[in-house]
Specification:
The protein is mainly alpha-helical. Helices cover 74% and strands 4% of the residues. The longest helix has 33 residues.
């Protein structure tokens, strides 16, 4: 849960300056930072906490990741509708393009999570293409990649005109340090995680 503690000051600050509900746009940074800066990293890291039973950890993981994906979709819907109402072009920045890829990856990753959750091996006819252990390993690795992708997208959001208008001067470098530290933590967890045992 170290990545969540690292990101907590940034998440708190961004929700504060976004002032959720003040405008339609305010829901975009609020939902996205809660999704990719809080819920998804927490859901990923809690699987490594051995003090709880595996079934309990999997249930919490599923709940946090589902809430994270739902918030990401709401955040995407908010920015889409905000741009539509202003007649602005969509996906004109690297942040927007990577954001779309990140939300799409989160949805696909959720489908992989369902395969892992319901203990499904990937088969074609009689041949097994991916055993359950492989499905779970791929889901874990892709989850680490998705978390990094989400952190990169959050970082690109710090270059937006909105963030420059609302942030105090020292927040940007502090946010860079926090996002970098969280990314290193995620990389460490992915590279040192133990293989998932067969249920």
């Amino acid at each position: 849960m170290l990545s969540v503690l690292i990101l907590a000051p940034l998440v708190t600050y961004l929700v504060y300056v976004a002032a959720p509900g003040s405008t339609l746009f305010s829901w975009h940074p609020t939902c996205m930072v809660l999704s990719f800066g809080l819920l998804m990293p927490a859901g990923a890291e809690l699987l490594s906490l051995r003090r709880w039973s595996r079934s309990w950890r999997v249930r919490l993981h599923w709940g946090l990741q589902s809430a994270g994906v739902a918030l990401a979709l709401l955040g995407f819907a908010a920015i889409y509708q905000n741009k539509e109402s202003r007649g602005a072009a969509h996906l004109t920045s690297t942040h927007g393009q990577l954001g779309l890829a990140t939300v799409g990856t989160a949805v696909v990753q959720s489908a992989g999570g369902l395969l892992a959750l319901f203990s499904v091996s990937v088969k074609t006819g009689r041949a097994t293409l991916l055993r359950l252990r492989t499905v779970r390993l791929l889901h874990a690795l892709a989850g680490g990649g998705l978390t990094l992708l989400g952190l990169c997208t959050l970082r690109l959001g710090l270059d937006s005109a909105w963030f420059h208008a609302v942030a105090t001067p020292l927040v940007r470098p502090a946010a860079d340090v926090l996002l970098g530290a969280a990314a290193l933590r995620v990389l460490y967890k992915v590279l040192t995680s133990r293989p998932v045992k067969q249920a």
